[in-house]
């Protein structure tokens, strides 16, 4: 039944893509009177960009689909390597005990939980410490306290103290589903694999903003990861769930503290060192997404600048497409996603509004918008089907295009400009509602 | 019926786009403003909590090496 449901949705997605192509032809057939040279050039640039976008969407969908075809449950292992779960905490006193309790329910026979209290000023350490020791089922909880130094230092402290050959790094306020460790560990039977990127899902689908993020995580982030997973070149292992071979981490030098996206930086270091990074959709971390618009912008501002910092750090490889083609491709892809795509989206919207007001040609904006919305809905349907998620989420793709993506892209463009200008920034801790 | 709806839909989409662009820049400005205010409040609080800059009692060897990470409570 599930299989049929998936096929139906994939067919629907293909139908939408076909409709999108028909619309594209309609735009080409429309006679526009464009006398202004700037307008002419802009239309050509935007049309070229639209073609690039369609290729991007189709490419991501196609490679996600290929990854899905290859996706089969790996056989159970005869021996289970020890896994150290590292939970960095800073002022998580209200959630730390429930977080540890949920980790103690994991379905895996050989693991330890390392809580790293990163100099909390609340009762995180005391509360975590109450749960320290060996528990029923064999898992041991250890609590380490260190002066405040940021998440990357806390994770490094945990990795150095880990007894397992595999480490699982997560956020203090995330939850793992019971099968996560068992499913992730299987990939490490292949010695070339250094890390497994997990599947992050939004748990608090309370209002429009968090529902849109739920869709974004499924469509925007996981679809890209799934497509990259086909090539074993996932470029960002998400903070809430990443499994690593400890020896590979030591080989590339652990997390560094010079960017605001330490997870992206570490993933790039692993890929550039020649390791493979895969995506496992069954490794699920549930995370609480910001419910307020300004908190969301704060998060995206940090992500954008952090990713840019990581790309700039390795930017010498951008210009070596022949020496290291795979590495160069990864970095260019990140530049496109982080810089070009948001800037072009804003430019397109502003341009079409100006053309609409000045020349009364609002159709251009209509075609642009409809095309992208159709692609969004097609991608959303495909991803919802694969992830066996709530089908209603797919229809939020309309809101996603109308409102969400423009707000996020403006934030990304502004963050990029500030990064290029060297404006100071701080990490800033997001206020959580404690819904997990 | 040949694309009769398009002019109406185009106008609606254009109005929505204009509102969204204004909202996007407005919310970004609001975020920066809030961030700046919070930073200022944080600085003031830190200044109030900080010990006076003069007459601070000298304690020999009181500084802990920041490289030492601290306690491991694994029982």
- Rounded to the nearest angstrom, the radius of gyration of chain B is 28 Å
Give the structural class of chain B. mainly alpha
Percentage of residues assigned to helices of chain B: 55-70%
Name the shape of chain B in a single word. rod-shaped
State the low-pLDDT regions of chain B, or none.
61-71
**Alpha-beta content class of chain A:** alpha/beta
The CATH architecture of the largest domain in chain A comes to: Alpha-Beta Complex
Largest sheet of chain B: none
Largest interface: A-B, 40 and 32 residues
Q: How would you name the oligomeric state of the polypeptide chains in this document?
A: heterodimer
Distance between the termini of chain B: 76 Å
User: How many separate domains make up the residues of chain A?
Assistant: 2
Q: What is the chain-wise order of helices and strands of chain A? A: HHEHEHEEHEEHEHEHHEHHHH
How many H/I helices of chain B? 1
The description of the largest β-sheet of chain A is:
9 strands, mixed
Report what the structure shows.
The complex is a heterodimer of chains A (436) and B (75). Chain A is of the alpha/beta class. Chain A has two domains: 2-71 and 336-421; 83-292, Spore Coat Polysaccharide Biosynthesis Protein SpsA, Chain A (Alpha-Beta Complex), CATH 3.90.550.10. Helix content of chain A is 55%, strand content 13%. Chain A is built from 13 helices and nine strands. Chain A has a nine-stranded mixed beta sheet, with helices on both faces. In chain A, strand 1, helix 3 and strand 2 form a beta-alpha-beta unit. In chain A, helix 2 packs across helix 7 and helix 12 crosses helix 13 (397-421). Chain A is globular. Chain B contains one helix and no strands. In chain B, 59% of the residues lie in helices and 0% in strands. With 75 residues, chain B is mainly alpha-helical. Chain B has a domain at 19-46. Mean pLDDT of chain B is 70; it is low at 61-71. The chains are: A alpha/beta (436), B mainly alpha (75). The A-B interface holds A 129, 132-133, 140-147, 149, 157, 161, 293-294, 297-298, 301, 346, 349-350, 352-353, 356, 362-363, 365-366, 369, 402-403, 406-407, 409-411, 414, 426, 428 and B 6-7, 9-11, 13-14, 16-18, 20-21, 23-25, 27-28, 30-31, 34-35, 38-39, 64, 66, 69-75.
């Amino acid at each position: 039944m599930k299989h049929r449901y998936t096929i139906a949705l994939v067919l629907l997605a293909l139908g939408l893509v076909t409709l999108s192509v028909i619309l594209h032809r309609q735009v080409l057939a429309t006679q526009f009177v464009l006398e202004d040279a700037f307008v002419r050039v802009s239309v050509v640039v935007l049309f070229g960009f639209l073609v690039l976008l369609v290729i991007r969407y189709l490419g991501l969908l196609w490679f996600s689909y290929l990854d899905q075809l290859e996706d089969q449950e790996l056989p159970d292992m005869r021996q289970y390597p020890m896994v150290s779960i590292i939970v960095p905490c800073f002022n998580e006193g209200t959630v730390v005990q429930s977080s540890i309790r949920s980790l103690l329910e994991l379905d895996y026979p050989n693991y330890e939980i390392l809580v790293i209290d990163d100099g909390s000023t609340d009762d995180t350490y005391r509360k975590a410490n109450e749960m320290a020791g060996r528990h029923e089922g064999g898992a041991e909880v250890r609590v380490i306290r260190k002066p405040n130094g940021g998440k990357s230092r806390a994770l490094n402290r945990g990795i150095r103290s880990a007894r397992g050959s595999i480490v699982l790094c997560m956020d203090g306020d995330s939850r793992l589903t019971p099968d996560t460790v068992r499913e992730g560990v299987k990939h490490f039977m292949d010695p070339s694999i250094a890390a497994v990127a997990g599947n992050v899902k939004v748990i608090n689908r309370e209002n429009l903003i968090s529902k849109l993020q739920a869709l974004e995580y499924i469509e925007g982030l996981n679809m890209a990861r799934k497509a990259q997973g086909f090539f074993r070149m996932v470029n960002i292992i998400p903070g809430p769930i990443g499994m690593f071979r400890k020896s590979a981490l030591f080989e590339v030098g652990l997390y560094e503290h010079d960017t605001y996206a330490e997870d992206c930086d570490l993933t790039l270091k692993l890929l550039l060192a020649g390791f493979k990074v895969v995506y496992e959709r069954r490794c699920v971390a549930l995370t609480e997404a910001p419910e307020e618009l300004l908190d969301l912008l704060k998060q995206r501002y940090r992500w954008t600048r952090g990713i840019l910092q990581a790309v700039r750090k390795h930017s010498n490889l951008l210009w070596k497409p022949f020496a290291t083609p795979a590495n160069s491709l990864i970095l260019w892809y990140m530049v496109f996603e982080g810089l070009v795509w948001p800037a072009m989206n804003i430019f397109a919207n502003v341009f079409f509004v100006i053309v609409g007001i000045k020349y009364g040609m609002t159709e251009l904006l209509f075609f642009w918008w409809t095309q992208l919305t159709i692609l969004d809905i097609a991608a959303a349907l495909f991803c919802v089907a694969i992830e066996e998620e709530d089908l209603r989420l797919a229809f939020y793709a309309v809101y996603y295009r109308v409102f969400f993506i423009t707000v996020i892209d403006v934030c990304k463009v502004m963050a990029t400009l500030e990064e290029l200008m060297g404006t100071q920034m701080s990490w800033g801790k997001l206020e959580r509602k404690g819904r997990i | 019926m040949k694309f009769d709806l398009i002019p109406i839909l185009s106008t609606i989409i254009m109005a929505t786009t204009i509102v969204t662009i204004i909202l996007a820049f407005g919310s970004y400005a609001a975020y920066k403003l809030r961030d700046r205010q919070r930073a200022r409040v944080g600085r003031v609080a830190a200044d109030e909590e900080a010990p006076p800059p003069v007459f601070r009692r000298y304690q020999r060897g009181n500084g802990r090496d920041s490289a030492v990470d601290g306690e491991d409570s694994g029982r």
